[in-house]
Write a structure and sequence with these properties.
2 strands, 9 helices, two-stranded antiparallel sheet, 59% helix, mainly alpha
Length: 222
Amino acid sequence: MSRKNRSLGIYDRRRSNEYKSCSHPGCYQPRRGLSRFCSKHEGKQQRYGHPDGHYIYPKNYRCEAQEVKDFIERHIDHKGVQAAITWLDGWISDSTLGKPVPGGNSLRRLNDHGVTGRRCLEAVIALWLYAYRRPGTIPHDVRLDFALALSVLRLAPEEKKIHWMNGEMKQHGKHIGYRVRKDVGVHIRQTLYILAKNMVEAMNKVADQGDAMKISMITAFK
């Protein structure tokens, strides 16, 4: 920032910035406040970590979710699976004790609704498998971190905020902040990356074997 801009007040800088166009390629809408982006792209940046990010609905990877659930059931005694479940249970438990863990109050919400470490692991690996098979849908950058965070944080209903309008009570879900989403997603990726990679490779190997068998059955006889 130039020396001249530093001398301006916050409101003057905001007004000056809003005359500029959004930094997102191909977007010419005015910027929002002090952001580099317009309202639309700034909103995506805050919610999904990237101006091109979007929410991945669980229904989109329902098949992967069932595949992962079956895989974990078959390998529930595997040391890596047990270690991951124990780690996730401990993370949720620590949040209820007020310890400074990533996610804090948002993780405590999972405990209040009976969400287990195993359920979290199923959600995380299902999304990871989906991202691996469809890299264009979830690029393996900060967007994957945010998607992993939301796959866990939305296993329990969001806290409700209440306000009154024209004498009528209104309530809506409490926003999960940028910092919480980022911290939770990075914590998951850094801790579970090796296990997730091994599980995804194992499931894809089984899927490839099934596809090869189907192809052999439809091959024409000579």
